[in-house]
Amino acid sequence: MAKTFLAEMIGTAILVLFGCGAAVLMGAQIGMMGIALAFGLSIVAAAYGIGPITGAHLNPAVSLGVLVAGRMSTSLFVTYVAAQVVGAVVGAALVYLIASGQAGYDLAPNGLAQNGDGAGSLGEYSLASALLFELVMTFVFVTVVLGVTQDKSPAMLAGLAIGLTLTGIHLVGINVTGVSVNPARSFGPALFVGGKAMADLWVFILAPLAGGALAGVLHKIGVTRAA
Prior knowledge:
By secondary structure, this protein is mostly helical. The chain is 74% helix and 0% strand. The chain is built from nine helices and no strands. The protein is globular, with a radius of gyration of 16 Å.
């Protein structure tokens, strides 16, 4: 369990450090395309680095989908989620510590690539749009994860497929919510930023978990699972 916890923690920290770090430290230079690639590449790196140990979920919504699909125990699910949340906090803390070394950086106006909706968010999309986007895109993401990690799929391509899917999701939705599809990824930055980021956090917990659970249900009953 200790090895599992550490692997998921490190992997989730990598995700937040790469993805949120790209947005905070290099966003003006690389734009939304670069940020999307950073999130996707972080998944590829973690998948091949720690995938053999835990499968590199790095995301409570993915772990919930795997649980609902009948592919992990409840006790293991709790361990994964705890590790993911801790890893996301560690990753966000590293981004903050690095960013705070730049003259003029201020956490309040500059943030940590936190997710949000409505007034004050990146695209100022409505709550309904944010909920719908996060639910649908998490469903798509977890469906892909479950599909490419099932027994009949080519295991060596799984990390690449998952990373490219996350990249595509970010290309569609950075302007909508900043893209969560991952409650841990949202929690880490929000914990440091506080205020609106924490107030909006429920959206990025509820919608991704619902999307992940739905993907797990459809996989379990065979709709998205190879015969």
